[in-house]
Amino acid sequence: MPRSWRGLVKKEFSPLFPGFKLGEKKVYLPNHTITFIRKDRVPPNWATFQVPLTFTKLDIRDYLWNLYKVHTTGVRSWVDSSSAVRKPRGGYYRPQPKKFMMVQLVKPFVWPEPPKNLEPWNKKLWQARTDAANEHFKSQAHLQAGNLHYPSELAMTSTSRKRLAEQAKALLNGEKQWVEPDNLDSKWDKIAEVAKREREAKQQKYDTEKEERLGTEKPARREKKAREKEAGEKEAGEKEAGEKEVEKQ
């Protein structure tokens, strides 16, 4: 124990006297975040915190005493620098480093055992969201690399896709027949009528344009064929006349 602490051993355990001089500067509405980190391999008389980069050893000591009445006899601090990270588009950048502090406690603190039943915290929901996000990132990475896959070639992991595949297989094998639902939402009736009228108008316009196009194309085709036939006969006559002249000579 440091020499300056020897006379304060009895007072350290008093909940009313911290055993050291507190800072006199008052801070109103602080905006810093301090995280208590679980370290299972650290002795129980040491606690690890992640603190802002501007935090000092005196700050963490006064913070623990003023808020939680926790006595500390020593503080260690270090800064972990982050590795360079490549941006999705552009060059590299280095994230902001993280600062950690370990404080030596007068009264040891032991972390409780983690709960085995995680249902109250919706563990399955969070795990499903994490798996879905990972699958999305993998698909995007394959897409950017140019490795495209058909959806039918991918493994059917979702329940909806499996159920849909089973229903489609039953319809193709003739085990079930397609039956339209009787009760449809009435709000789709008007939309269906408008869509039907639009399709009929497009089909009628297409048929009219087709008839006009064929009507104008037929005379042009006849004239073209007649010209080609006339040119062919003329060329054949000239060729025959040339051969006869060669024979006379």
Outline the structure in words.
Keywords: Ribonucleoprotein, Ribosomal protein. Pfam families: Ribosomal_L23 (PF00276). InterPro entries: Nucleotide-bd_a/b_plait_sf (IPR012677), Ribosomal_uL23-like (IPR013025), Ribosomal_uL23/eL15/eS24_sf (IPR012678). The protein is α+β, with helices and mostly antiparallel strands. Among the domains are: 10-82 and 95-110, Alpha-Beta Plaits, CATH 3.30.70.330; 186-239. It has helices at 9-12, 57-68, 123-145, 159-172, 187-248, and strands at 35-37, 46-51, 72-80, 85-86, 92-93, 98-105. Strands 1-2-6-3 form a 4-stranded antiparallel β-sheet, with helices on one face. A two-stranded antiparallel ribbon has the order 4-5. Mean pLDDT is 82; it is low at 1-12.
Shape: elongated
The percentage of residues in β strands lies in 5-15%
Distance between the ends:
136 Å
What is the number of E strands? 6
CATH architectural designation of the domain at 10-82 and 95-110: 2-Layer Sandwich
The poorly predicted ranges are 1-12
Strand order of the largest sheet: 1-2-6-3
CATH topology of the domain at 10-82 and 95-110: Alpha-Beta Plaits
Name the helix and strand elements from N-terminus to C-terminus, one letter apiece. HEEHEEEEHHH
Summing up helix and strand content along with how strands pair, one would put the structural category as alpha+beta
Helical element count?
5
Quick check: average pLDDT? 82
User: CATH homologous superfamily of the domain at 10-82 and 95-110?
Assistant: RRM (RNA recognition motif) domain
Radius of gyration: 43 Å
CATH class of the domain at 10-82 and 95-110: Alpha Beta
- Name the helicity range: 40-55%
**Major beta sheet summary:** 4 strands, antiparallel
GO cellular component, one term: mitochondrial large ribosomal subunit
Pfam families: Ribosomal_L23 (PF00276)
Family: Belongs to the universal ribosomal protein uL23 family.
Protein name: Large ribosomal subunit protein uL23m
